[in-house]
## 1
Amino acid sequence: MKAVLLNGSPREGNSYTALAALKKGFTHIEDLVIEEIAAGDVSVSPCLACEVCHDSGMCVFDDDTNEIMDDIVSADVIVFATPVYWWGITAQLKLIIDKFYSRSSQLMECKKQVGIIAVGQMPVEDTQYELIRKQFECICGYLGWDIAFYNAYSAYDAGDLAENADAIAEIEELWKQIK
Ligand SMILES: Cc1cc2nc3c(=O)[nH]c(=O)nc-3n(C[C@H](O)[C@H](O)[C@H](O)COP(=O)(O)O)c2cc1C
């Protein structure tokens, strides 16, 4: 089984901490290969809507897009951890998700289990977390993927989530949602 952990944050902050806690739990899953992608560290140009990928299945850019898409296509599990930026996911993560367009028919053919962790400054009751949940429900519904978990946490400074022992303990148990 292969899991891709996609960190939408440009910093080693709360999303990074969440994925580290998740990884600790994921060690319970037998034969799991983990691939980590930090959206802030990769080079992914914005989609041009040139449609070349619709014939070739490849993005025209000579950047990290095609390699990342190879990882996404071959993954059984994809976990998105994203800070909330302006009531939504980060631009860095959205650049990568936009490129799913280049492999959409392939991605629809292979069922995936998806986990989502959203971290924002606002309390977890804020509408922003519902907006993000809805966006992923639409994306996963379109691609035919299953959402195994969606968890939201309130944290602001880079070290805040690490100090929330209850949140970390909860994230470490999320591997149990993967079938
Ligand atoms: C550009 C920017 C926009 C942000 N917008 C929001 C927002 O709309 N709602 C919110 O709750 N927090 C917002 N935040 C705060 C981050 O979501 C918060 O600091 C989060 O913990 C960052 O996650 P990270 O440590 O993984 O980078 C924003 C931060 C930045 C830098």
Note: The helical segments are 14-26, 52-56, 65-74, 91-98, 104-109, 127-143, 165-172.
## 2
Amino acid sequence: MKKIIWKIEPLGLPLVLRHCKKCGKTSEFSCSGQFRVNAQRKYLDIWLIYKCAKCDTTWNAAVYSRVSPQALNANLLEGFYSNEEGLARQYAMDFQFLKGNGADVLRPSCSVLGDIPASGEVSEVEIQSEYPFPVKVSTLVRDKLCLSQKDYLERVTEGKIRSSAGQDLRKCRLKNGMVLIFQ
Ligand SMILES: [Zn+2]
């Protein structure tokens, strides 16, 4: 069986939808890549800062509220102070974190890197994604193979595309390390 790896790469960071006071309506906010750390007495408040795409009004997504500096790993704390790119990305990609802050999150488009399984040959495709996107597997596979919804469903029904763990490929969402079998 041929083994293939698909790497899911997001194109950009997710935008979030929030009400913007200045615009007076729901706006798209994008991640600034900057953290704000406020020290108050013995505690820290840490936010990741978003900006309204239209007017630059900021919205702060709470990362930590009233946390003791000793409770945080020194490297992590330094990452917040220095706006470390990877750290900001990690939070900006975390849908649970953003939803917990009351934002609606727009999924970024992503590209699927890796070979296309040859037809008439059985291939095992492992999907790797550094970030847990709530994206449907059907969307990824259809984009990669340029399949219509109808063609995709036909192949799934016929067992020509299936999940090694028996997940329902009509509706299941991306999980890092999941394996699909194509034939
Ligand atoms: Zn605005």
Note: The first helix runs from residue 74 to 81.
